[in-house]
Give the backbone structure.
Amino acid sequence: GFSEKKLVGNLASMSTSERIKAIQKMPENMKKKREIRNKVLKEITKKSRHRGTRLPWCTQCLQEAVVSFRRFGNSLSEYFHLLWFWHKTLKIIGAEFGTSVLSYFIFLKWLLTFNIFSFLINFGFIAIPQFFAGEPNNLSFTGLELITGAGYFQQTVLYYGFYTNATISKPENGPPYNMQLAYIFTVGIYFVICFLILSFSTAKSFCRNFINPHTYSGNASKLLCTWDFNITNEKAVKLKQKSLSTQIKEDLAEVNQEVLNFSITERVVRGVIHLVSWVASVGTAVVACAGVYFLSVNNLELFMKGHKNDLESQAAMLVLPFVTSLLNALIPSFYSWLGHLERFQNPGQQIYVTIVRNVILKISIIGILCYYWLNVVAASDSECWETLVGQDVYRFVLVGFIFSLLGSLFGEFLRRIIGSRVCVSLGLPEFDIGRNVLDLIYAQTLTWIGILFSPLLPAIQMISFSIMFYVKKVSLMMNCQPPRKVWRTAQMTTSFMFLLFFPSLVGALCVIGVTVWRLKPSEQCGPFRGLPSMYAVVSEWVKILENYTAAKWVVWIYHNLITSELFFFILSALVLILTYLYWQIIEGRKTVTKLLRKQIIN
Amino acid sequence: MGNKQTIFTPEQLDAYQDCTFFTRKEILRLFYRYRDLAPQLVPLDYTGKPDVTLPYELIGSMPELKDNPFRQRIAEVFSEGGDGNMTLDDFLDMFSVLSEMAPRDLKAYYAFKIYDFNNDDYICKSDLEKTVNKLTRNELTPEEVSLVCEKVIYEADADNDGKLSLEDFQHMIIRAPDFL
């Protein structure tokens, strides 16, 4: 009819890729779409024949070129499927266990890409030039270095201390390569890129998933929008159905319970229980931090006293990471138990409170470690404190990885054996998404802190994440059952991304910032030896640039934008004003929506 | 695997590529899946546009669909005659919309049609009751089902006509980020 003619005309006037997308998105069946497509193509040839007298070959060629390019791009993307590594595995996990468990594995893959990127640029810009200027390694290699990170590895590109502070110009007559600038700029640019990527992803995710949170808890969306069509496993489907019916029953029962008011004594008792649990959890965190601090100071003394490379002192170096990882593994279980004791109003609250407590614990432990590294180790009179810190971080990452694997073993494998043979009422274990994601964030925070001191640390993390993916996947398939509780995946994913951005990346940036600006690099090793601070490299470089007229704009940017306080003040004020304006616009739109709704009803 | 396939003419393949979200390889793979359901019914040469329809029982036995509580409705929505028997076109259409490359509003449109059991372009109370029963495996009592349906209509019905139209449904989907 007439509307169809209009549609065909619209489609014919779009560009090729837009037209194809529009046809794909049409909610018609294939026959109709083919008809419309043929009509549109006829219309286009008619138009081009019309215009053909003016531009005979240009537009025709261009159109055909665009179409064949798109076909080529399609076939090329089929071959690039190899790069979508783990795509099939992720699909299987999603089918068997649902999207909530899948979100953990997608998060893991995302963190892995950060590490791959970091490794590539560090290796390319820092490690490879160092190979040209490296000194030979006189230490012997015993297998123990893989765990302790000391010994042979001390004189390799793995650690800060090995890098030269000279300007490398091999091969001869090649362009000079300033290792100092390369080091600081590579690390700096990597963090800037990470910051931008994370902040944009978090903002986009937040925008998509958190608008109007109060309408989400409605029954309508719970019923019609939460069915996970990805699941194809029969058992998982049955479980989902059971959980949905249980939830609906609970919701209906809650309607009656809302009328029930808690008496004053009940409320006081509940409040006291919550207070006691919070005191207990924060107290445990404080005690853990104190223990870690004393152990670490002790560790340093032991290290400084005996500089032997024998088995005993190597083992002693592993005690601190071992104890820290043990605390990180046991205390969250204690928090889960506390969460079960307190009777929360709804299970969502319990999950959030437990996650908040775990985050507090992990932040305090990392905070104490950073304090130890930056204040105690840096101020000690060791030969090369940056390498010491790098080695410590290496050990922490490695021991943390081993504990993660063991956690899978004990948490899931043993629990399944217990649940299926010994005590059948317990049932099979479920995959603990929150805890595993927080472990990932903890490991990534350590890696980010350690990049400055050990540029190839992301390679270690890459390997550990890859192995962890396979181990967790196998453990999941073998031991776990699909989750029973409804887990709001989209909101949780946003929260995890936000946690990765705010305490994790921002914290790592603060640590790096303090190191670069305030700490004095060691005198005898590393690319910044002898300078008052690592940042001094940049200020000296700018001073040199002042002599070149071609680079005056760089100098201007440096003096007026980066080092001037006025600029940052103006920038912050602008950001605050914009935020306030956006907030007011949103409030205004909410009022308009309410008014329009009333009008529709009436 | 080169360009030498003889199942479809190049124009047919181009048309499929333009109308679905699939690439050439995926279309051929889906054709083989379709054929594997009934090798004796489906010819290897589609250049003559043969009129082959597979009955619903075969479609519903596919591993992707066999445990889905809505498989019958899905087959009915995508089949030409509304009876669940699908041609190759319908088959490709169905998987195109269910794939991860389809945009959300397209999926919302088809989800609405799937939940609309009596095909009257509105999700009325009886449609909702059938949906709830399928989602919970008949575990709720009829009173509970009725109560839930009333609550859903009360929440989502914007123009107060006692049933959900496509706009109500799409409006709800926009604000529910977990919709898949």
Q: What stands out?
A: The radius of gyration of chain B is 19 Å.
